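Researcher:
Attend to token order:
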Amino acid sequence: QVQLVESGGGSVQAGGLLRLSCAASGNTDSSYCMGWFRQAPGKEREEVATIDENGLTKYADSVKGRFTITRDNAKNLALHMNTLEVEDTGIYYCAARWGTYCTGPRPFPFWGQGTQVNVSA
């Protein structure tokens, strides 16, 4: 099992930037697909970005070109968010699942507690 703790959320104006971090601990020697999810008020949770052990990334269409997901060898995760929009508001969660790759619709069993991101006009 791996434990995940998010940080870096806050309030920013549209057009601004924010960096979210996810500190991993526990069984970090295993291979994981890791990702960021978010849930906006009144909307379903959505996948924002994922990154596999080889650094291959995938992004939701709504954040392509604006967000960048990164990871290090200790399984720490980050999300660099640029040109933020009001629609980016929500609770952001980091997550992990076993596997070298992020392919397939397998569930993510490990989650952080979430960090709030508020983007105002």
Notes: The chain has a mean pLDDT of 95. The longest strand covers residues 18-26.
